[in-house]
Amino acid sequence: MTAPLWTSQEVAAATGGRALAPFAARGVCIDSRAAAPGDLFVALSDRRDGHDFVAAALAAGAAGALVSRMPPGVAADAPLVLVEDTMRALTALGAAARARSQARVAAVTGSAGKTSVKEMLRAMLAPQGPTHAAEKSFNNHWGVPLTLARMPRETRFAVIEIGMNHPGEIGPLSRLARPHAAIVTTVAKAHLAAFDSEAGIARAKAEIFEGLEPGGAAILNRDNPHFALLARRARRRGARILRFGAAQRCHARLIGAEDGPGGCAVQARLMGRPALFRVGAPGRHMAMNALAALLAAQALGADPGRAALELAAWTPPEGRGMRWRVALDETGLDGAIHLIDESYNANPASMSASLAVLAAARPEDGIGRVPRGRRIAVLGDMLELGEEERALHAAIADDPAMQAIDRVHCVGPRMKALHEALPRARRGEWTEDSAAMAAMMRRLLDAGDVVMVKGSLGARMARVVEAVMKLGRPEPARADQEAL
């Protein structure tokens, strides 16, 4: 039988707490609704007080709970560890998990692409050893310690995503994760409401080097205008610099990326040697993400050749470029709509990359009410852009990819600036919110169309994705079905 993830004694020792009764936990959770048998439930206090849900978590089979006071409805001899502050205790538990682990750790940040790189690394490393990576986008002050606290003892490779909204957030999380490889995918206009400039964003991203282990690698985008700033900050921490991009003298240099059915064929040079591989998602930005991931895999001691082979079967996470074929009847004889789901997040850089993917898509002609298949974008607000937000939304109209896009529908008060800037032939509908746009999908789409839905999470563009799914029978797109 495998050893438990945590015993009550280990939890108490790591957190400076007091165990009221013995237990052995196989997992860690912070949401009582997701508590699985054998979990340690951590009663955090944020919008709601987790102590109010300890009884429910224990009833669901949780092995024990980490609390700062006796919760209601729980017996005095319940399997609890009592601490002064549960958030600090979760952080201490994450630090203890990292301290006892022999894993090689990669940390990933960036204005765009960090979740895709994290998921690529998960897929690439898993066949080469026990691999642990953050769920979804658990990349903030509670997500990173939770990810570390969940790390199994036998982990060989770990991948930690680190995000931010304000300066000073990445550094403490990097020092907690203590990575051997730190990746900055790119620096671009995002979270500008909290920064005075894009260079300020770069300085905040450079905090990821603060936790680098001795001899660690900083993996940087050589094509980014902030490369020099990032490289200086990394060298101050003793990092060796590994460069990816299309520029000369990159350790992972992109020679070409050609989209086709089922993804992207990549031609590159990796550590001076020719490399040909496929990525299971189209787009030059995905090829760049793959190069960053390959450098990280090599820096962690994995075989990059084996790692590259795994990229062909990799698909993007939900809401971050996942592709669907929505058959409009049970048999598929009435044709299908092809959906690109980019509904999880948006900033100007990721918006431009996603529009390029849509522009390269191949709609199907002659199968719908409209004789020619169309490329259609449904775009929601990009949030946290500060005083430049209106200009940055309007500027999307001038993106080179727009020349290949037939119709653009806009959602939200900020996207009204784009709606007004679009030429009349390309201008579609504008709605105040995503619910109103979702209600229009049946009228606005037709068989053969390729539709890309994108916006910041707060714009709730997942409603539009759901509405497109409900037009027929959705299934993940296979290479022989994609109009991409």
UniProtKB/TrEMBL annotation:
<dbReference type="GO" id="GO:0008766">
    <property type="term" value="F:UDP-N-acetylmuramoylalanyl-D-glutamyl-2,6-diaminopimelate-D-alanyl-D-alanine ligase activity"/>
</dbReference>
<dbReference type="InterPro" id="IPR035911">
    <property type="entry name" value="MurE/MurF_N"/>
</dbReference>
<keyword id="KW-0436">Ligase</keyword>
<comment type="similarity">
    <text>Belongs to the MurCDEF family. MurF subfamily.</text>
</comment>
<keyword id="KW-0573">Peptidoglycan synthesis</keyword>
<keyword id="KW-0961">Cell wall biogenesis/degradation</keyword>
<dbReference type="GO" id="GO:0005524">
    <property type="term" value="F:ATP binding"/>
</dbReference>
<keyword id="KW-0132">Cell division</keyword>
<feature type="binding site">
    <location>
        <begin position="110"/>
        <end position="116"/>
    </location>
    <ligand>
        <name>ATP</name>
    </ligand>
</feature>
<dbReference type="InterPro" id="IPR051046">
    <property type="entry name" value="MurCDEF_CellWall_CoF430Synth"/>
</dbReference>
<dbReference type="GO" id="GO:0008360">
    <property type="term" value="P:regulation of cell shape"/>
</dbReference>
<keyword id="KW-0547">Nucleotide-binding</keyword>
<comment type="pathway">
    <text>Cell wall biogenesis; peptidoglycan biosynthesis.</text>
</comment>
<dbReference type="GO" id="GO:0051301">
    <property type="term" value="P:cell division"/>
</dbReference>
<keyword id="KW-0963">Cytoplasm</keyword>
<dbReference type="InterPro" id="IPR013221">
    <property type="entry name" value="Mur_ligase_cen"/>
</dbReference>
<dbReference type="GO" id="GO:0009252">
    <property type="term" value="P:peptidoglycan biosynthetic process"/>
</dbReference>
<dbReference type="InterPro" id="IPR005863">
    <property type="entry name" value="UDP-N-AcMur_synth"/>
</dbReference>
<dbReference type="Pfam" id="PF08245">
    <property type="entry name" value="Mur_ligase_M"/>
</dbReference>
<dbReference type="GO" id="GO:0071555">
    <property type="term" value="P:cell wall organization"/>
</dbReference>
<keyword id="KW-0133">Cell shape</keyword>
<dbReference type="GO" id="GO:0047480">
    <property type="term" value="F:UDP-N-acetylmuramoyl-tripeptide-D-alanyl-D-alanine ligase activity"/>
</dbReference>
<feature type="domain" description="Mur ligase C-terminal">
    <location>
        <begin position="337"/>
        <end position="456"/>
    </location>
</feature>
<dbReference type="GO" id="GO:0005737">
    <property type="term" value="C:cytoplasm"/>
</dbReference>
<protein>
    <recommendedName>
        <fullName>UDP-N-acetylmuramoyl-tripeptide--D-alanyl-D-alanine ligase</fullName>
        <ecNumber>6.3.2.10</ecNumber>
    </recommendedName>
</protein>
<keyword id="KW-0131">Cell cycle</keyword>
<dbReference type="Pfam" id="PF02875">
    <property type="entry name" value="Mur_ligase_C"/>
</dbReference>
<dbReference type="InterPro" id="IPR004101">
    <property type="entry name" value="Mur_ligase_C"/>
</dbReference>
<keyword id="KW-0067">ATP-binding</keyword>
<dbReference type="InterPro" id="IPR036615">
    <property type="entry name" value="Mur_ligase_C_dom_sf"/>
</dbReference>
<dbReference type="InterPro" id="IPR036565">
    <property type="entry name" value="Mur-like_cat_sf"/>
</dbReference>
<feature type="domain" description="Mur ligase central">
    <location>
        <begin position="108"/>
        <end position="297"/>
    </location>
</feature>
<comment type="function">
    <text>Involved in cell wall formation. Catalyzes the final step in the synthesis of UDP-N-acetylmuramoyl-pentapeptide, the precursor of murein.</text>
</comment>
